[in-house]
């Protein structure tokens, strides 16, 4: 059902007045994790001031170590919703447990399924059964074919509003956190009718590479870019090394708009 052979025209997903997949880039920006109302609200204001409409922030964080900050859970989603409403933004946040989906859709505009859960089939089915767009990230070691099949799980349950997100894959290369598979973008655009995003923060893990990889993403036809922004990355509870502070974010957006 996600194949372009089945449906030749692009799927366009309406979120908060943005038409994702319409040929113009739509940016998804916000902190790695929701930490406090002040933190999210500061970023939300910066996002709004750039004329953007889509705010991200993790409330349920799938951390590699059980001793790292796990996120504020439902309380985090409420904070995100409040800060987003204050600034006229839509909310995108990751859900990790199928049982949370029904409750979470009260607070979310887009459900994110993270890389670690790309093949959590019960989660894919649950996200496919609700009436909210889904941003599906490529698994850390997933082939493009496996990624497309994961999207097929969602659409097979009735929900065809799916955004695919390339976020880097695991290779032997250590210079970046993951290896951004830039060619996945045109391949996914050719093979499916779904919008395709690139997450430059988690693919590179390096603040100095956010702008060049975002330019590359747009140059190869991505429908949007995701990146992380924090008022003070040095004290961020997750992904401290690669989030942008607000002046850096402003420069990043101004460069991309050129
Ligand atoms: C995220 O976007 O917050 C995240 C955890 O990314 P990924 O699932 O791609 O690692
Ligand atoms: Mn992060």
Automatic annotation (TrEMBL):
Coiled coil: none annotated. Keywords: Transferase. This is Bifunctional 3-deoxy-7-phosphoheptulonate synthase/chorismate mutase.
